[in-house]
């Protein structure tokens, strides 16, 4: 029996290609919609692909139906466009009308609306973690370096800050050094936040990047992603380490991340945020 292909809607970065490689390894056929300006068509040579601009959702859905795909993986880096630059085709205009004002809300609101719209169109949105082994980490230390007391305090402070940001559907990360919030993540993304933190670094022990899942965030479709570029940015910013939510982040090229971090003496720590907050309130070590 022929298996229906999975549809990879590919933005930029390495993650869409890793999902494609995982599909090949498991013998799962796939097709890919490459988002113009983000995915690189040359990297998908020989595959069955359609390259579209973001506003051509109607064309993409028609093509996916014709391909036989029903499951859709939304994966990769995409910068959210302004509505005026979108130039929606007829199918996209129909979707936008269905989504309504949620198109102008935060990322969580928009993604929830996109999920529902895709389901209404007969598709099943699924997350990239289904295809990637070791993409998520249980609680624990991944590196030789470990956080000291100052870093643990900064992690707890970062958790409180990121949770406040997340409650407002703003961002997933913050950089804290010696109790001071150097930078918080908004629409610019983690890399730009780390670059800003590098310019604001203070003397003394390095700070910590904290990345968490936002309250109400779709854990199937929209987990935070960390990769070698994140580690490189943290090293350049003079940070002591990165703390991320256990089983709440996608690790792109985990082995390379650990190798980079070990070479620089940076720690990578998968955390249960509630455990760290609770430890701070009781005075216990985490």
Describe this structure in words.
With 286 residues, the protein is of the alpha/beta class. It folds into 2 domains: 125 residues, Rossmann fold, CATH 3.40.50; 143 residues, LpxI C-terminal catalytic domain (Cytidine Deaminase, domain 2, 3-Layer(aba) Sandwich), CATH 3.40.140.80. Helix content is 38%, strand content 19%. Strands 6-13-11-9-7-8 form a 6-stranded mixed sheet, sandwiched between helices. A 5-stranded parallel sheet has the order 3-2-1-4-5, with helices on both faces. A hairpin with a 2-residue loop joins strand 7 and strand 8. Helix 2 packs across helix 4, helix 7 runs parallel beside helix 8 and helix 8 packs parallel to helix 9. The protein is elongated, with a radius of gyration of 20 Å. The termini are far apart. The model has no long low-confidence stretch (mean pLDDT 86). It holds the Pfam family LpxI_N. InterPro entries: LpxI, LpxI_C, LpxI_C_sf, LpxI_N. It comes from Muricoccus roseus. This is UDP-2,3-diacylglucosamine pyrophosphatase LpxI.
Shape: elongated
Question: Could you tell me the strand content as a percent range?
Answer: 15-25%
What do the pLDDT scores average to?
A: 86
CATH fold field value of the largest domain: Cytidine Deaminase, domain 2
Strand order of the largest sheet: 6-13-11-9-7-8
The H-level CATH homologous superfamily of the largest domain, spelled out, is LpxI C-terminal catalytic domain
* Unreliable residue runs: none
Q: Report how far apart the termini are.
A: 52 Å
Write the H/E string, N to C: EHEEHEHHHEEHEEHEEHEEHEH
Total beta strands: 13
Helix count, per DSSP? 10
Task: Domain count, please report it.
Answer: 2
Largest sheet features: 6 strands, mixed
- Helix percent reads 25-40%
CATH architecture of the largest domain: 3-Layer(aba) Sandwich
Alpha carbon gyration radius: 20 Å
Structural class: alpha/beta
At the first level of CATH, the class of the largest domain is Alpha Beta
InterPro entries: LpxI, LpxI_C, LpxI_C_sf, LpxI_N
Organism: Muricoccus roseus
Protein name: UDP-2,3-diacylglucosamine pyrophosphatase LpxI
Domain LpxI C-terminal: 139-268
